[in-house]
Design brief:
heterodimer, A: alpha+beta, six-stranded antiparallel sheet, 16 strands, B: alpha+beta, four-stranded antiparallel sheet, 11% helix, elongated
Chain lengths: 230, 227
């Protein structure tokens, strides 16, 4: 199990009295998000978090294959490797990343929701289904020893409606974790300029095995020739 | 029939012991968890079997927000269904907030980036059933291999009991009620390699070749050609 498909899902839900949580609970409630603020999905202090910054060890290699977020609140997701943002404007200035409208989570989600607790008026959950316009290709590589962040930025506040209700939003990352020998192979493929994916890692393993078999056969033949010559 | 495509569908509302609200937040085995439809013993491979898990999926969830007034209310409820899922106006989500994890022997397959096991794949990323409203963002690739002699399990965890409907009234699940069918489901698709094909699967694994019916057939053909 040294190549593993992994996902991480973040949402702005945490138990009452806490801004973040390390484990989902049945008592989670939505937490307010400020417009135009970046929220680190891993250690941002809001919603579901993990125990430490996401980083690869010396024997790990990560390939990020997809990122997505709720289309509502005009949210966007950005990848940061060490201190460098992956998505940039054409003038090389910072941007918020991939909009949820281009890479929605879930696929088929409505583009907007209207919350209104006052007066018993029905809220509008749009009947549209947003499909993805964006495909994260080529994939994003996180090399051994690097730290990475996924940043979610809502362009509007999560407080909506006359009663000040809080919108719930989610973000999603899909990546493959290469560990141990497979991480070494991933590094080798990177040196060779070959795309890192499970197929190519398997191909490299096969080519190593074939090479070993050929050299074993060649040395056996040489040995036989030497013995025959005596 | 030594390579067979197999599926297992679990429904929390089937069987003699259906899921109740108290099970929210608990890890439930879809094979022997004691809720919904179960099988007679833990899922395991014999010495002559090899299982390749190719897909897992669970009931999806839709993030909305608190205090939304959703039309089409279920009897006795202020808030009803949205996109086929029951809405919980307090938590602000519609659906069960369900996740599914694969466990091989005692090891969970899906981890957080800090290497701590997590709840697994969200139903929102890998929905079952798939629909226009809920399409998959996740593809289980590379596949998960269950080697001969290993025990495997698929575990479901849900966090929103109020996103599930009661079997009798359809209202959100209260503490003493049991869930209706089609409210919380999990799906596993796998291929079972048996006998000689399991041996070939092991051989392919040694060679670093992906195990799928095409490659098993290729290996058989290459054996025949070398004879």
């Amino acid at each position: 199990m040294s190549m593993r498909s992994q996902v991480y899902e973040w949402s702005n839900l945490a138990p009452e009295g806490q801004e973040f949580t390390l484990r989902r609970t049945t008592a989670d409630l939505p937490k307010a998000l400020t417009a135009n603020r970046e929220y680190d999905l891993f250690i941002g202090g809001v919603g579901l978090n993990i125990t430490k910054p996401a980083e690869t060890t010396a024997t790990q290699f990560i390939v990020i294959e997809d990122i997505a977020c709720s289309p509502t609140l005009n949210g966007a997701v950005q990848i940061r490797i060490n201190t460098t943002d992956y998505f940039q404007n054409p003038d090389v200035t910072d941007m918020v990343g991939i909009p949820g409208l281009a890479s929605p989570y879930p696929r088929g989600a409505p583009s907007t929701v209207t919350l209104d607790g006052a007066g018993g008026v029905d809220s509008l959950v749009d009947t549209d289904n947003i499909l993805k316009s964006f495909d994260l290709y080529p994939d994003v590589y996180v090399l051994p020893g690097q730290t990475f962040q996924i940043l979610y930025t809502p362009l509007s506040s999560s407080t909506l409606g006359a009663a000040g209700s809080t919108a719930v939003v989610s973000a999603f990352i899909k990546y493959t974790l290469y560990d141990g020998p497979d991480a070494l192979i991933a590094n080798k493929l990177l040196e060779l300029g070959v795309t890192i994916n499970p197929n190519n890692v398997d191909w490299y393993k096969r080519s190593l095995i074939e090479q070993q078999q050929r050299s074993a056969a060649a040395s056996a033949a040489a040995m036989a020739a030497t013995n025959g010559g005596v | 029939m030594s390579m067979r495509s197999q599926v297992y569908e679990w429904d929390a509302g089937r069987g003699t012991n259906q899921v109740q609200a108290a099970e929210a937040g608990q890890r439930i085995s879809i094979f022997i968890g004691g809720f919904g439809n179960n099988i007679t013993k833990p899922a395991e491979t014999t010495a002559t079997e090899f299982v390749v898990i190719e897909d897992i999926a669970v009931t999806p969830t839709l993030s909305i927000g608190t205090d939304a007034k959703i039309g089409g209310a279920v009897t006795g409820l202020a808030n009803g269904e949205v996109r086929g899922l029951l809405y919980n106006s307090v938590q602000g989500v519609a659906g069960p907030r369900a996740y599914t994890q694969v466990r091989i022997n005692t090891t969970d397959y899906f981890l957080n980036p800090d290497n701590v096991p997590n709840d697994g794949i969200p139903g929102t990323a890998s929905p079952y059933p798939r629909s226009i409203n809920f399409q998959p963002s996740f593809n289980l690739y590379p596949d998960v291999y269950v080697l001969p002699g290993q025990v495997w399990d698929v575990i479901v965890t849900f966090y929103n009991a109020l996103g599930l409907g009661d079997a009798a009234t359809g209202a959100p699940l209260a503490s003493t009620q049991v869930v209706a069918t089609n409210q919380l489901q999990c799906f596993v698709k796998y291929t079972l390699y048996d006998g000689p094909d399991a041996l070939i699967a092991n051989k392919l694994l040694e060679m670093g070749i992906s195990i799928n019916p095409g490659n098993v057939d290729w290996y058989k053909r290459s054996l025949l050609a070398s004879q």
